[in-house]
Amino acid sequence: MKAKTQTPVAVLEPAQTQVVKIFGVGSAGVAMLDAANGADFTGADFVAVNTDAASLASSSAPVKIQLETRLLRGLGTGGDPERGRAIAEEQFVTLKTACEGAGVVFVVAGLGGGAGSGISPVLARAAKETGALVLAFVTLPFACEGNRRQQQAQSGLDLLKSVADGVICLPCQKTFKLIDENTSVLDTFRITNGLLVESVRGVWRLLTRPGLIRIHFDDLCALVRDRHSESVFASVEATGPARAREIVEKLIAHPLLDEGRALAESEAVLVSLMGGRELTMAEVNRVMEQINRQCERAQIIMGAAVDETLKGRLSVTVIVARQGPIPMELPPLAASGNAGEQVTSRGVVARPGSRCSSPTAPSAPEQREQNLDRNAGARARKPNPKMRQAQLSLAIVSKGRFDKSEPTIHKGEDLDIPTYLRRGVALN
Amino acid sequence: MFDDSSIVVGLEIGTSKVCAVVGERNADPAGTGLNIIGLGQARSRGVRKGEIVDPSQAEEDVRNAIVEAEQMADVEIRNVYLGVTGAHLRGFNNRGVHPVVSADREISEDDVQDVVKNAKAINLPTENSVVHAIRQHFFVDGQDGVTNPVGMLGSRLEVDVHVVHGHTNRLQNAIRLVKGLQLEVDEIVSNGLASSLALLSNEQKELGALVIDIGGGTTDYVVYANGVIKHTGVLAVGGDHISNDLAYGLKVPLSRAEKLKLEFGSAQVDGECRGKAVTITNELGLPFKTINVEHLRRIMSLRLEEIFQLVGQDLEQSGLFDYLRGGVFLCGGCARVPQIAPLAEQVLQMPVSLGQTNSVSGLKSALDQPEFVTAIGLVKFGSFKTRKREGRTSLVSGIKGALGSLWRRS
Question: Tell me, what DSSP letter sits at residue A210?
């Protein structure tokens, strides 16, 4: 199935002319789609796919597909991905016709529930069969949402990886570091949704904005595909004369990149720089030099582009294909099919209502500002013991005897953490 | 009473041990010989990464070490040369300029003093103070490589100095601790400088050499080129980190990790240890855990490799690699790790050997150990200083000083 990238559609010249369809799957996906809609995605077709009628009704997407059978009575999949998958298989033709004509298909979903984990792999396959390139953007549930959802999300993710050209994944748990402790639940979900939308936007820009140093979609796919690994994503912005340096600092401190550890352990990195007309080569050079130094082992693909709306700002999007902690040896469809079946055999727990039912969509630029502020805030707060507490539960690496001593930071690396961990050397 | 002046004591408050070395300057007329007559050491408990974190415990350890050294050497220790280290120490090169104003354009001793003073006048952050300002070479009217310009003719005298500076309060912590034990601190010396003094001969300094002292909490390194110190650095990573990595990676307590490091450690993962496992027992003698030796060595090897890489990168930035014709010398407790020299050779791409203290005689057991190099270097530094001081004092002032000290003591 990987060979399909070589189908005629994959020869994408010029990129601007192709049709891009963005599918939001499941309640979370639909909510994210709403967050993205209206932001600068001119030229993309939005399609909302869900089993839950209520969620679709509130969506602002122009095209809505409700996957419905009599069995469900409009109540959704009940948190069971197997049901979602069954329905999607039943309506496979509908999905395929919806994908018809698109050159690139983005699948946006929140994994863990019934619709997101069940439908999106099928949708990806349908899109694949029409000859489009498929890139999936998914969130993994918070740890507090329970083990079952985590497992469902994981098996959904594995399925997606086996069919889509690339999967970009945002584990919600990691966004805790970005978020203030007093943020309401609603806002938290809004922010995680916003982050994912941000990544979609980053890729979108890559594909559509005139690049000075162009990144081809094939490069992107090659980066995220076949790695059996988690691709993480970070986007930062800075202004002012020292913006190049600030960008690098922000990247290194970015929680989604595990404070720069992701960069050190990365296998491949895609960097996209975006600036206004005043973007200088020296700045590009400075940022790239630092990133190169951070990830010595990685294959690096870089692109730079000018976007006139970014007046004085420099925006950098990084997608890091990282060696997973456990390399997953998954023979594509057969094994993942089994995984799916296991989930069903474990029995169905009724869990109506997905976590992402917030119908209101905040305006995206505002959101971005907000995220950035939070990002900066999280860095400034680091010495605060309260914040430490939150970090401890996430970062498993304890520094042992150096726990209380002044950390030895050398070029953004904490040398107190064992070298083999920082370099991602596996002991097996 | 006069004997006292020939005794020099070096005290190093290290991360893993506190070590006091007593040296006696030989009475031979040249005064070059140095005899080690006493050695005292104590396990250090109040120091992390080369800096004191628990003064009361550190004070006790220092007292124990000093007492042991006093007993062994049979002297009373009043003054010490104190070794300091820590990540806050920084070194850089600076140049001072001084116009020669005398009518005949002859450079006098005063001119030399002035130019060195100018070179020392540097902009430091207010909380920092200078530990060393080491003279490199003089320039007379742009002429390079002058070692002693007194008596030469010239109109413009310049000098390069290597300045080592550090955080004043942190330096004072160690000094105060020693003073609390009724000891005088003659001078503070950076550990890296002391180690290099102990290891390198003049010839090696001239050829250019790198000394890496990997201790318990810090790695100090010094670069000599053309006979002078060109670069110094401190990395707050050492043997403690290896133990900590092992404790984390092998999931054993820290004390056990320390033992495993000493027993099975190696800087290189060779074919022989592949798949080899050892079973360790708990205090009752029952099997407690099986440890894979290959993992142990891989963890160690990666950490040590990283240390050498970081030092290498620093040297590369300062462009000193090509000056190191004398090679690399290792010392400090970690120099005991088997295979460490081949590993360093691999990383730094130049000949590496374990350093040996030269031109010192005395207790054989002390001199052969890499972990005492710093303390011996401190003694050596002290002996240089006292000799210089004596050389300068004229006969009259010498007698005056002796009388003065008589008065003070009575």
Answer: P
Q: Shortest CA distance to A175 belongs to which of A197, A161, A190, A192? A: A192
Percent of chain A exceeding pLDDT 90 equals 0
Is A418 in contact with B295 (Cβ distance < 8 A)? no
DSSP code, position B122: -
What pLDDT does A362 receive?
Answer: 39
Measured between beta carbons, the chain B residues lying within 8 angstroms of A397 are 248
Query: For the complex shown, is ipTM > 0.90?
Result: no
Tokens of A274: 């975006």
Count how many residues are written for chain A.
428
Residues in chain B: 410
Give the count of beta carbons closer than 10 Å to the beta carbon of residue B161.
Answer: 24
Other CB atoms closer than 10 Å to residue B232's CB: what's the count? 25
Closest to B228 in 3D by CA, of B113, B112, B132: B132
Strand order in the sheet with A133-140: A63-66, A44-50, A20-25, A104-110, A133-140, A166-171
Domain carrying residue B122: 90-165
From the list A405, A420, A421, which residue is nearest B48 (CB)? A405
Q: Which residues of A touch B87 (CB under 8 A)?
A: 406, 408
- Asked if residue B126 and residue B248 are part of one domain, the reply reads no
pLDDT greater at residue B277 or residue A241: B277
Q: Is the pLDDT of residue A32 over 70?
A: yes
Q: How confident is the model over B70-93, as pLDDT tens digits?
A: 999 999 999 999 999 999 999 999
Q: Is the pTM of this model over 0.90?
A: no
Shortest alpha-carbon distance between residue A325 and chain B (Å): 14
- Could you tell me which of A295, A302, A290 has the C-alpha nearest to residue A322? A295
Q: What amino acid occupies position A425?
A: V
Q: Is residue B74 part of a domain?
A: no
Question: Residue B134: which CATH number?
Answer: 3.30.1490.110
CA atoms within 13 A on the CB side of B53: 16
Q: What is the pLDDT of residue A426?
A: 78
Contacts of A72 (CB under 8 A, 6+ apart): A51, A83, A87
Per-residue model confidence as pLDDT tens digits over A113-150: 777 888 888 888 888 888 787 888 888 887 777 778 88
How many domains does chain B contain in total? Answer: 2
**Burial level of A345, CB count in 10 A (0-12/13-18/19+)?**
exposed
